[in-house]
Amino acid sequence: QDSVRLQKVDYNEIRTPRGGEYQVVLPDNSIVWLNADSKLKYPVTFGNDAREVELEGEGYFKVTKDERKPFRVVVKKQTVEVLGTEFNVDAYPGEKNIYTTLVSGKVKVDADGQTVILDPGMQSVVNDEKMYTRKVNVAEVISWRNGMFVLENHTLEEIMSKLARWYDFTVFYQNASLKEATFKGKIPRYASFESVLDILEKTGEVKFNVKNQSVTVYQ
User: What predicted TM-score, i.e. pTM, was given to this entire model?
Assistant: First the structure.
């Protein structure tokens, strides 16, 4: 019984609200920046053989190098394993894809028995059907850490999903085809909600009607 008690692991859980972000220093001095509407669960002390945390939402990880103890991030059906590196994981509930983007170092992404090794500048995409990798603009992916939303050929549905978590609103589309409109540009993350919608409206593709905390998209 004593040995069972000794093996009990205490966990910390950090949650960020919509519109919030937070920096966490882990027991090994690794740093995690949590984006809005995210959750990180990690042990008060890491064990002797591995460092493992659980993420829901989006986090940017700067991992302290320790070759004896692999660092693992577990999200949904995917595990990312690293030794010492910087990377971003985007795994919000309700979103179809999990995106893992490598900034520096090397990571191994494991999903349902499929494994890929990422080099810097590469991103893995995991969903229910498949897993694949692609080269991405890393600065765009991690722009949220620098107070920007960078839009590079994102669909309106993807953009509004990001904005909704930051500005805390619900979005409705007058018709489904509007979701596929694509946009380019940069939006300051701390701009007012109205000015962000104004920037998107100036493209001439869509219009917005705001009432309380809901936005209707129309043409």
Answer: 0.87
